[in-house]
From TrEMBL:
It comes from the Bacteria. It comes from Bradyrhizobium hipponense. This is DUF2840 domain-containing protein.
Amino acid sequence: MSELTTVELLWLAKRIENRIRFGKPAAEKIIDRQRRVLSFAPGNIFAFVRWTSNDFGTVLSRLDILRAVAPGQRYSTVPWVSPGGESLLRLSGWPKVERALQLIDAVEALGINPAEAAPEYWHHVHNRLSVNETPRTYTRARHQAWLQRRRVTL
């Protein structure tokens, strides 16, 4: 078993779009014009967006924020992700996915890579969006606290 988590990306015009919204892949393999495979090292956080439609409109809108796992660690299975990942955020339905994408944009607007944001923040977003509350935005102060906490625990 490889130590990397792989994500298969597919794009079929007006039908299927699987893409990475953020994350730092360790490797990339281009299969053809519509397909690529990205690999992430254990511990790396990435956002995987899936969208599918048919002749009648959108069938699926999904956002998963995952942490790549090391061999032997527990993980959640996600289509197109092998073996899977630690689920930090899992959303279905365009209104929730759209709101989470806006929050990702807000983190980036602070000059912070969303993959480096505190993992607990993504759990918080999930809990608030589930009950239709407005989640607190990520702040530089919260990010600095996370970086200090991470430094102490390493």
